[in-house]
């Protein structure tokens, strides 16, 4: 199956054929196929206006340059555009191999982006501590909301990963949680910090051994939704006196930033975060600042006896 989402209408048969190829032959992850579908659908809609009555595989480089220019006007950055261009190049290669296109007009085409990468929003150590301290524990729903904060910050989970956690994903013996549906359908085991482990044990004991969603709605016992998680984080930040908007993603970024600031190896952080490679984790290198310079300054190149 091509990972088609039935909420959206079908694309051109050639586009649908390419998506099926990615899923069934290339064995791409469902999330990847979904991302490619979104790109092809969005670019097709724009090109219906910019170059009507011509399919994507019949467009020239000048047509795609017009699309890029329009995307730039709406604020899309180079990294995002290059990702979309990668999706389009893959499709145009497929169209060329199937005899529907004369050539791939985007072959080797990349955007040079001189803009500085924006540092991800994150908390300071002091703010993170205050955020946790601001969570009350008197009622069951308060203890659940505190667990939301602890798992987001203490394990670096994405919002969807948190919402998808089930009781059986917690390995109390190994002190880990299994993330079964990470980005790109990649599973991973995430160690639990001591404090999170202790409170999670108490939380599970209160649940009485019931299986199902780890974090449930109070009324129907269903998994928390992303909007619930956002509300929990926003209210916790307000109680902690943090004078700016804090999102669940900021807690995940804080997890990576604080680990890196403590000297944890980039490859280890990459694995904990569920990234495809350490290169993807490079966005957090801003926390290093002048640490590399301080480190090399400690090298004694003159020798111990030198004046």
Number of strands: 3
> What is the CATH class designation of the largest domain?
Mainly Alpha
The parts where pLDDT drops under 50 for at least 5 residues are 1-7
Percent helix range: 40-55%
Corresponding CATH architecture of the largest domain: Orthogonal Bundle
Order of helices and strands: HHHHHHHEEEHHHHH
Strand order of the largest sheet: 1-2-3
**CATH topology call of the largest domain:** hpI Integrase, Chain A
Helices and strands: which structural class? mainly alpha
CATH-assigned homologous superfamily of the largest domain:
Intergrase catalytic core
Helical stretch count?
12
Determine the strand fraction and express it as a percent band.
under 5%
Determine Rg (CA atoms, Å): 24 Å
- Indicate the mean pLDDT: 84
Termini gap: 72 Å
Query: Main sheet?
Result: 3 strands, antiparallel
Count of discrete domains: 2
Overall outline: elongated
How would you describe this structure to a colleague?
It contains twelve helices and three strands; from the N terminus they run αααααααβββααααα. A hairpin with a 4-residue loop joins strand 1 (170-171) and strand 2. Helix content is 50%, strand content 3%. The chain is mainly alpha-helical. It folds into two domains: 13-97, DNA polymerase, domain 1 (Orthogonal Bundle), CATH 1.10.150; 125-289, Orthogonal Bundle (hpI Integrase, Chain A), CATH 1.10.443. Strands 1-2-3 form a three-stranded antiparallel sheet.
């Amino acid at each position: 199956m091509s990972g088609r989402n039935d909420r959206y209408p079908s694309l051109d048969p050639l586009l649908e054929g390419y998506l099926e190829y990615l899923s069934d032959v290339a064995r791409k992850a469902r999330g990847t196929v979904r991302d490619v579908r979104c790109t092809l659908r969005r670019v097709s809609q724009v090109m219906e206006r910019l170059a009507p009555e011509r399919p994507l595989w019949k467009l020239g480089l000048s047509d795609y340059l017009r699309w890029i220019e329009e995307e730039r006007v709406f604020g899309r950055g180079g990294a995002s555009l290059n990702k979309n261009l990668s999706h389009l190049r893959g499709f145009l290669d497929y169209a060329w191999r199937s005899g529907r296109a004369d050539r791939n007009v985007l072959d080797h085409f990349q955007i040079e982006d001189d803009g500085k990468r924006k540092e991800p929003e994150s908390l300071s150590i002091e703010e993170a501590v205050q955020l946790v301290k601001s969570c009350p524990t008197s009622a069951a729903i308060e203890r659940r909301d505190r667990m939301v904060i602890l798992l987001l910050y203490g394990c670096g989970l994405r919002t969807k990963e948190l919402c998808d956690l089930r009781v059986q994903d917690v390995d109390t013996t190994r002190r880990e949680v299994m993330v079964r549906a990470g980005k790109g359908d990649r599973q991973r085991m995430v160690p639990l910090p001591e404090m999170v482990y202790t409170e999670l044990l108490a939380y599970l004991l209160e649940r009485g051994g019931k299986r199902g969603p780890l974090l449930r709605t109070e009324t129907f016992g269903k998994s928390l939704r992303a909007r619930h998680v956002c509300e929990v984080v926003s209210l916790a930040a307000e109680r902690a006196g943090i004078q700016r908007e804090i999102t669940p993603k900021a807690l995940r970024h804080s997890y990576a930033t604080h680990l890196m600031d403590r000297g944890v190896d980039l490859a280890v952080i990459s694995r904990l975060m569920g990234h495809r490679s350490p290169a993807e984790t490079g966005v957090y290198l801003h926390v290093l600042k002048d640490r590399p310079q301080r480190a090399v300054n400690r090298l004694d190149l003159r020798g111990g006896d030198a004046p």
